[in-house]
Amino acid sequence: MRRTWPVIVHSCVLRYCSKHPARRCISTMTNPLIAVCQMRSISDKVKNLEVVTSLAIEAKRRSAAIAFFPEACDYLADNKKDIVAMAEPLSGQTVASYKEIASKNDIWLSLGGIHEASPDAQKIYNTHILINNEGQLVATYRKIHLFDMDNKDTGVRLMESDYVLRGTEIVPPVLTPIGKLALSICYDMRFPELSLTLRNMGAQILTYPSAFTYQTGAAHWEVMLRARAVENQCYVVAAAQTGAHNKKRTSWGHAMIVDPWGAVVAQCAEKTGIATAEIDLELLEKVRKNMPCEEHRRTDLYSKMK
């Protein structure tokens, strides 16, 4: 008998009034709804896929147009050998299963980043993929900033470059049912140059699917996500891994959605589940109009900062 994994759902459907950005209002549900998902991946692909399936079904039940899943939603192994050996090409069975979930439930899926096999037998790509509601792969982004940490004082060693190849392209935002969606992954959020480039390419929603370490998450997770939202006047969607994956790895969690004013409008607790919020592009345009930062950028000077 196939095991059904329980899903603990944490939902928040709040938005901020355009006339009074600091005042919370109950949603009128006139705008598209999204679901940010949180899970605890392990080394078992089948069990992880069951969780993704359950969360996608729940997101659809709550009328979400897109469900956002975290980095390593396919699996999270505890050693380099298994990480590389378990990777699949985008034409593999795992992505095929994601496509089936999307088409069967008539929902878009943001899955980032999955472990993509590469021509280099020793390394893989960390890849964020976007699948539409017809089960078609519409965008692929390979992580360009790799997280390397070898701290002798704390004993934390996470060297992504040991087994991951750097991406070489910033992918233009994709037109989706919720607006123009930009793809990034986790550590990318520490580089505002990337988010600004994506904003200049037309982004309305920035995404940071993550498996953020517990220590750095406690200190930096929320403040950086809110900063990326404020400085770019974009929605920010950050799906997250949570809890202990193995003896070596624990993730911070706190998946969230931030609006263009920098307000956290939806957030998961510390367990597997989803949080939902509307994407109000009228609010986004009002924020940009009332605070016209783009008109004041000194791009004539920034080019000299190298």
CATH topology: Nitrilase/N-carbamoyl-D-aminoacid amidohydrolase
Low-pLDDT stretches are 1-27
The fourth-level CATH homologous superfamily is: Carbon-nitrogen hydrolase
- How much helicity do the residues have? 25-40%
- Class per helix and strand makeup: alpha/beta
Radius of gyration: 18 Å
Give the biggest sheet: 8 strands, mixed
**Helix and strand sequence:** EEEHEHHEEEEEEEHEHEEEEEEHH
What's this entry about, in short?
The protein has 306 residues and is of the alpha/beta class. The chain has a single domain (33-293), classed as Carbon-nitrogen hydrolase (Nitrilase/N-carbamoyl-D-aminoacid amidohydrolase, 4-Layer Sandwich), CATH 3.60.110.10.
What features would you describe in this structure?
The chain has helices at 45-61, 80-85, 93-105, 192-200, 214-232, 281-290, 299-302; strands spanning 14-16, 24-26, 33-39, 64-69, 108-117, 124-131, 137-142, 148-151, 156-159, 174-176, 179-182, 205-207, 235-238, 240-244, 250-252, 256-258, 264-267, 273-278. The strands form 4 sheets. Strands 3, 4, 5, 6, 7, 14, 15 and 18 form an 8-stranded mixed sheet that branches. A 6-stranded mixed sheet has the order 10-11-12-13-16-17, covered by helices on one side. Strands 1-2 form a two-stranded antiparallel ribbon. The protein has 306 residues and is an alpha/beta fold. It has one domain (33-293): 4-Layer Sandwich (Nitrilase/N-carbamoyl-D-aminoacid amidohydrolase), CATH 3.60.110. It is globular and about 50 Å long. Helix 1 packs parallel to helix 3. The relative contact order is 0.18. One of its GO terms (biological process) is nucleobase-containing compound metabolic process. It holds the Pfam family CN_hydrolase. Keywords: Hydrolase.
